[in-house]
Amino acid sequence: MNISRRTFSKWAGLGAAATAMPSWLGALPDADSQKLKIAVIGVGGRGKAHIKGLASQHFVAFCDVDDASAAETYKEYPNVPRFKDYRVMFDKMGKEIEAVSIATPDHMHYPIVLWALAHGKHIFCEKPLTRTFEEAMVLKNAVREAGVITQLGNQGHVADGWRNIREWVQAGLAGDVYEAYHWTNRPVWPQGLNNWPKKQPVPASFDWNLWLGVAPKRDYSPGIAPFNWRGFWDYGSGAIGDIACHSMDASYSGLQLGLPTAVSADVSGRSDVYLPKASTITFEFPGIEGRGPVKLTWMDGDRRPSDIPFVDSDKILADEATGKKGMANGSFIVGTKASIFASLYSMYPSFRPREYHKELRANNGFPEETLPRPVEKSHFMEWVNGVKTGTQPGGNIAEYAADFTATALLGTIALGVPGKLEFDPKTQQFTNSEQANRMLRSQYEYRKEFLPG
């Protein structure tokens, strides 16, 4: 089932009708004291962080396909209604729910967001927003029509890091910026294998059919769920899907990159079942006013950069001569005057050479802050306050998360299609590969019962 923006109009209409007069305008008359009524979908694993981050609000429903994974949350909140099927939860609790927080595997983000939009609910969704480029673009238009408040689970985007980077670059402190590097030690789960893991009995606490959701029916294996799913094309988007929505924000937002015009990849362990074991992905971004073109290099699977301008004798980089791996995750933005380092979450930026950074600090050489800073430094609470005030957070889907996710997911297409792929951001199509264009959308038919009708 290949969902285009045109064929989504039915679902977008449902969401728009449900929110033609957005529920939060009347539901929250006292923005200072009213607690947001939240349903959390996926309360084990990453969902525990959602529970913690939203603990000041009012949980009205929990949903998880695995009672064992959810047991800790259920014990902590014994009186919150529990469900295994999000569709049943919406049907039975829809009137009680004002917002949903989604912490499921990647392949279920898209259908659950659609279901939430059809019911007019505000949405917090874990990164990456979707599993495919097309899903991201559909959701971008759908949430805009629905008028609900949304947020991507990228905690670094509320911090100052990428804002500092943009201000420093615009002030010319790095010179003319032309290159960026981002790397991670992920995957820390299997990738690059050729065969599906062997069938094993489904645990009694686990509803495997609901976990599969829109994905094709397949035999259960602990080699897939609950943890290793990120490495499979059917369910995840590999290391870049997991980490790029954190670290790549340093360049995506810091340099205002937008969609690339070309992407290519060097991989080891290419497979039809799993994403590659390791990869180096090269993106090419066009210049904009005040900045020239940028080449961005993404590296995963323990691949690390070893030679970056202005970075000498630094523990961050790999050293091929000694075999030193260097820092597990990080970013560098390279200009003609200096390079900028940022941590995993695009935070704590600093210049290289280090002496240059010290000199700027000593001489008050850093520019004044020109970009707005969120009052809330929690991306969860930025979303909650956005719902209460009718203000979109910085990490909202329509203006940020969809395009950012889509950019990273163009990299996953290069993992599956050899050669340099030329991309047209205006038509959102590859100009030299029909195979790549097919991979913009899901390679399997969604099971329709998991989508709103």
UniProtKB/TrEMBL annotation:
InterPro entries: Gfo/Idh/MocA-like_OxRdtase_N, Gfo/Idh/MocA_oxidrdct_glycsds, Gfo/Idh/MocA_OxRdtase_bact_C, NAD(P)-bd_dom_sf, TAT_signal. PROSITE patterns: TAT (PS51318). Residues 36-153 form the Gfo/Idh/MocA-like oxidoreductase N-terminal domain. Residues 192-250 form the Gfo/Idh/MocA-like oxidoreductase bacterial type C-terminal domain. Gene3D superfamilies: Dihydrodipicolinate Reductase, domain 2, NAD(P)-binding Rossmann-like Domain. GO terms for molecular function: nucleotide binding. It comes from the Bacteria. PANTHER family: BCDNA.GH03377, NADH-DEPENDENT DEHYDROGENASE-RELATED. This is Oxidoreductase.
